[in-house]
């Protein structure tokens, strides 16, 4: 079935539809990963977005039960050069098209994804629509130019109720802004006793859980659209060791007095080089974000930059000078991508140990 992708700048692509026949509108972004399409489509940080995959063949190893990052995908649509109809992998249970049909996600294949990516790189992320070939393009373009996309993405993907993931180790409260399961997996692997809480949980409610550490998850959208999380962080800073990832990193920066800004087209892929300013080591990282912490705004805070992106010099890591707290913009849990930065979870556990010893010594 023919389908069209229409951008707010008036660009029109005609391709083949796959997955659901639903029509959709969202922010069109691109991801440069060569593998990991299942983790990408199930990453809650893509809530409200239509994802273009720059790798030309998608679906060749199918969809399996184990590689999801959430139960209910929040991505608005998928754009690919070619969607494989006959995957070959011993774990494969569905084709990409079959899975998208089950989850009511529309896709479009057979378009020039290279051209689309070059447009986004030149002009920045654009609003777009995947719709029927019969739809009047001018009507869709007018809608795209006047519509305001939702700003409640975190509310859409965060858990509605707190729940435990029991362990015998350190008590970690994990604030779910759109958490990837990979973060929970890494903490479980280290024996942590985890309590996952909604994004709107207050500082008092978190402290009542008597955590040894506070974990801030990834999530979608603009960090300034989650003011309740900034207020919560102001109430817990200095009272519990903290580790933040992606959106959690940006919210931490806002709580400490820094600013965040929207990027032209963001970082989305599994091959982004990041430099540790302390050791000089280069790490290849998995990333997915459209906002960044403004470097100049950090100068008037008690934060120090620990990591930078080598491609564009943007802030990739922060540490507080007075409190046991650090954050990174990239994804140390990978999924998909390299696991070069996985040791940051161990650093978080060490930070909790050091903090506990200092509390005991001052008692």
Automatic annotation (TrEMBL):
Task performed by this protein: Small subunit of the glutamine-dependent carbamoyl phosphate synthetase (CPSase). CPSase catalyzes the formation of carbamoyl phosphate from the ammonia moiety of glutamine, carbonate, and phosphate donated by ATP, constituting the first step of 2 biosynthetic pathways, one leading to arginine and/or urea and the other to pyrimidine nucleotides. The small subunit (glutamine amidotransferase) binds and cleaves glutamine to supply the large subunit with the substrate ammonia.
EC code: 6.3.5.5
Protein known as: Carbamoyl phosphate synthase small chain
SUPFAM superfamilies: Carbamoyl phosphate synthetase, small subunit N-terminal domain (SSF52021), Class I glutamine amidotransferase-like (SSF52317)
Active-site residues, as the UniProt record annotates them: 246, 331, 333
Complexes and interactors: Composed of two chains; the small (or glutamine) chain promotes the hydrolysis of glutamine to ammonia, which is used by the large (or ammonia) chain to synthesize carbamoyl phosphate. Tetramer of heterodimers (alpha,beta)4.
N-terminal signal peptide: none
Gene Ontology MF, one: carbamoyl-phosphate synthase (glutamine-hydrolyzing) activity
Family designation: Belongs to the CarA family.
Region (CPSase): 1-170
Functional pathway: Amino-acid biosynthesis; L-arginine biosynthesis; carbamoyl phosphate from bicarbonate: step 1/1; Pyrimidine metabolism; UMP biosynthesis via de novo pathway; (S)-dihydroorotate from bicarbonate: step 1/3
Domain Carbamoyl-phosphate synthase small subunit N-terminal residue range list: 1-131
HAMAP family (UniProt xref): CPSase_S_chain
Lineage of origin: Bacteria, Bacillati, Bacillota, Bacilli, Bacillales
Catalytic activity: L-glutamine + H2O = L-glutamate + NH4(+); hydrogencarbonate + L-glutamine + 2 ATP + H2O = carbamoyl phosphate + L-glutamate + 2 ADP + phosphate + 2 H(+)
Domain of life: Bacteria
Keywords recorded for this protein, A-Z: Amino-acid biosynthesis, Arginine biosynthesis, ATP-binding, Glutamine amidotransferase, Ligase, Nucleotide-binding, Pyrimidine biosynthesis
SMART domains xref list: CPSase_sm_chain (SM01097)
Residues annotated for L-glutamine binding in this entry: 45, 219, 221, 247, 250, 288, 290-291
């Amino acid at each position: 079935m023919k389908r069209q992708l229409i951008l707010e700048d008036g660009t029109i692509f005609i391709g083949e539809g796959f997955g659901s026949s639903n029509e959709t509108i969202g922010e069109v972004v691109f991801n440069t990963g060569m593998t990991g399409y299942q983790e990408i489509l199930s990453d809650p940080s893509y809530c409200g977005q239509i994802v273009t995959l720059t790798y030309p063949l998608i679906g060749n190893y199918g969809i399996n039960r184990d590689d999801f990052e959430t139960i209910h995908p929040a991505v608005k649509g998928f754009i690919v050069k070619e969607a494989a109809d006959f995957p070959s992998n011993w774990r494969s249970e569905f084709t990409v098209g079959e899975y998208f049909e089950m989850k009511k996600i529309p896709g479009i294949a057979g378009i020039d994804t290279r051209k689309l990516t070059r447009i986004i790189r030149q002009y920045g992320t654009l609003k777009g629509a995947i719709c029927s070939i019969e739809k009047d393009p001018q009507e869709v373009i007018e809608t795209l130019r006047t519509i305001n996309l939702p700003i409640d993405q975190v509310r859409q993907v965060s858990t509605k109720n707190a729940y435990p993931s029991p362990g015998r180790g350190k008590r970690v409260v994990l604030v779910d802004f759109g958490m990837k399961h990979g973060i929970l997996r890494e903490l479980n692997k280290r024996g942590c006793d985890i309590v996952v809480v909604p994004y709107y949980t207050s500082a008092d409610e978190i402290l009542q859980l008597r955590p040894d550490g506070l974990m801030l998850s990834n999530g979608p959208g603009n960090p300034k659209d989650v003011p309740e999380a900034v207020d919560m962080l102001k109430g817990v800073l200095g009272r519990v060791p903290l580790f933040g990832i992606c959106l959690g990193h940006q919210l931490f920066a806002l709580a400490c007095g820094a600013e965040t800004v929207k990027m032209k087209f963001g970082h989305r892929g599994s091959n982004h080089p990041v430099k540790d300013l302390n050791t000089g080591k280069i790490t290849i990282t998995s990333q997915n974000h459209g906002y960044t912490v403004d470097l100049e705004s950090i100068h008037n805070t008690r934060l120090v930059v620990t990591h930078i992106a080598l491609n564009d010099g943007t802030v990739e890591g922060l540490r507080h000078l007075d409190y046991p707290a650090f954050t990174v913009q990239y994804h140390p849990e990978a999924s998909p991508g390299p696991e070069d930065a996985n040791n940051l979870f161990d650093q978080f556990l060490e930070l909790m140990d050091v903090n506990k010893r200092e509390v005991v010594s001052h008692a």
